[in-house]
Amino acid sequence: MTYSVDVYNKEGKVVSKLELNKELFSEEKINKTLIQEFYLLQLANARVAIASTKDRSEVAGSGRKLYRQKGTGNARVGDKNSPVRRHGGVAFGPTSERNFEKNMTKKARKLALNSIISLKAQSEALCGLQLPTMEPKTKDALNILANLGLQGQKVLLVLSEKTEGIVKSFRNIEKVKYILVDYLNPRDVLNADKVVFVEGALYQINKA
Predict the structure, then answer these.
(1) Does the pLDDT of residue 75 top 80, yes or no?
(2) Are 169 and 141 in contact (CB under 8 A)?
(3) N or C: which end of the chain has fewer CB within 10 A?
(4) Confidence of residue 179 (pLDDT cuts 50, 70, 90)
């Protein structure tokens, strides 16, 4: 099964329909395993090791033996930095040197992203927009969203290039995020209620 995308103008009227390339976007091409792998990769690679502890060599304190080895009747003991003592180092605690990074081939990432776009097309959460340029006015951007019936929805606006007027018009609207087509990622696409491709970006992803 192949998909088609409606392309709207600023007034919210359908001006054309684009057939998505069936070699890239179709029900048969959807691979949910790759989607999950790419999504987890994005989360893992953005993760920062916050929890960090000091071992006995890093905590402040003298390395002097607390008391002599024999003759006290007590167990043998080392310095006060020992993990068994209060305020000593941590034996097996987490460190900031942990690496959560995952890897995935470029081809697999492309297949996963195409699968996500296919799912969005399947659920009719994908559309095109004729918007070559515009004056930087948030009011005009709100009118466009209203004409498309997208008020209050989480919208991902995909641009082919960073156009100042479009960026300044949409960037302050709540629940609306813009992104360049080259930076499409699973988290942003999956989290959006509607993915709106400016016409140039739509043609760009449709190339084999």
Answers:
(1) yes
(2) yes
(3) C
(4) very high
Q: Are 73 and 108 contained in the same domain?
A: no
Residue 74 lies in a domain: yes
Instruction: Write out the residue range of the structural domain in which residue 200 sits.
Output: 4-31+104-205
Query: Given this model, what pLDDT does residue 132 score?
Result: 85
Whether the model pTM is above 0.85: no
Q: Do 168 and 138 share a structural domain? A: yes
Looking at residue 208, its pLDDT comes to 58
- Which of 114, 55, 108 shows the shortest CA–CA distance to 81? 55
Of the candidates 52, 54, 49, which has an alpha carbon nearest to the alpha carbon of residue 90? Answer: 54
SS3 track for 107-124: HHHHHHHHHHHHHHHHCC
Average pLDDT over all residues of the chain: 92
Dihedral, CA atoms, 159, 161, 162, 163, nearest 10 degrees? -90
Q: 39-77 as b/e, with b when 16 or more CB fall inside 10 Å?
A: bebbeeeeeeeeeeeeebeebeeeeeeeeeeeeeeeeee
Cα–Cα dist 189/193, whole Å = 9
Please, how many CA atoms are within 13 Å of residue 8, restricted to the half-sphere of its CB?
16
Mean of the pLDDT values across residues 87-108?
91
Provide the pLDDT confidence category of residue 128 given band limits of 50, 70 and 90.
Answer: very high
- Burial (CB count within 10 angstroms: exposed 0-12, middle 13-18, buried 19+), residue 90: middle
Q: Nearest CA to 193 among 169, 175, 174?
A: 175
What CATH number corresponds to the domain at position 172?
3.40.1370.10
The verdict on 10 and 55 lying in the same domain is: no
